[in-house]
Amino acid sequence: MRLTLRNVVSVLAMITFSVPSFGIEITQPSGIVPWLQNEPNLIAWTFVNGDPSNFSVIINNQNMSVLNGNLVIVAIVKTSDREFNVSNVTLPESPGYRLTFADPLNSNEIFAQSAAFSILPP
Q1: How would DSSP label each residue in 73-111?
Q2: The whole model's pTM is what?
Q3: Signal peptide position in this chain (predicted)?
Q4: Which range of residues forms the domain containing residue 61?
Q5: CB atoms within 10 A of CB 65
Q6: Closest alpha carbon to 94 in 77, 74, 116
């Protein structure tokens, strides 16, 4: 197969149409609204009809010396709940955390990801 503009456009179209699209958006935490250590912290989101009915909540940090890999905070949350309180966050104080909402049976299927946020002392 010769690499032509037409072939490239065809492949891009197939990729674009094969990637699922979800309307879930994580609104808290955010770059503006941090979490506090040893305090209850809110996870909030919006969704649209047709989004998955539940998901897992995973946290990670871009700095592997702060958090080495992904940590599942909640195994299954109902999408329709719109919010969830995490109590007694004991993760290290640091910027660069992100939440990921993923399929509970396949964490590689990501539904939404938060903006980077910080965990601060109380």
Answers
A1: EEEEEEGGG-EEEEPS--SPSEEEEEEEEEETTEEEEEE
A2: 0.81
A3: 1-23
A4: 22-120
A5: 8
A6: 116
Please name the residue that has the structure tokens 């938060």. 114
User: What's the structural domain count of the chain?
Assistant: 1
Question: Token digits for 37?
Answer: 């250590």
For the segment 34-80, what is each residue's pLDDT rounded down to a tens digit? 999 999 999 999 999 999 999 999 999 999 999 999 999 999 999 99
Q: DSSP states of 31-70 as a string? A: SSS-EETTS-EEEEEE--TTS-SEEEEEEEESSTTTS-S-
Both tokens of 53, joined, read 């009915």
Q: How far is C-alpha 41 from the chain's CA centre?
A: 16
More confident residue, 8 or 63: 63
Overall average pLDDT of the 6-21 stretch: 47
